[in-house]
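Figure 6 in text form: structure in, sequence out.
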């Protein structure tokens, strides 16, 4: 989740087709790095969305990692 958040932040200044295309490339790279497919990611997010406390914990953990990486 952290790497996907970084990818999203990287394309924020862009818009339209350029943003969408680059987002697809970044997300594909993140999935490849972590050895998961887009379908697996989406299935996991579907499962997490049905367990809101667990999803909240995942988001909080990702946020903490982002904050800690900023201070390094």
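Output sequence:
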């Amino acid at each position: 989740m952290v790497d996907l958040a970084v990818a999203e932040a990287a394309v924020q200044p862009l818009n339209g087709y350029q943003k969408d295309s680059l987002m697809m490339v970044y997300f594909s790279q993140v999935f490849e790095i972590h050895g998961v497919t887009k379908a697996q990611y989406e299935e996991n997010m579907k499962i997490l969305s049905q367990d809101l406390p667990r999803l909240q914990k995942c988001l909080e953990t990702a946020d903490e990692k982002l904050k800690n990486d900023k201070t390094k």
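Caption detail: The chain has a mean pLDDT of 92.
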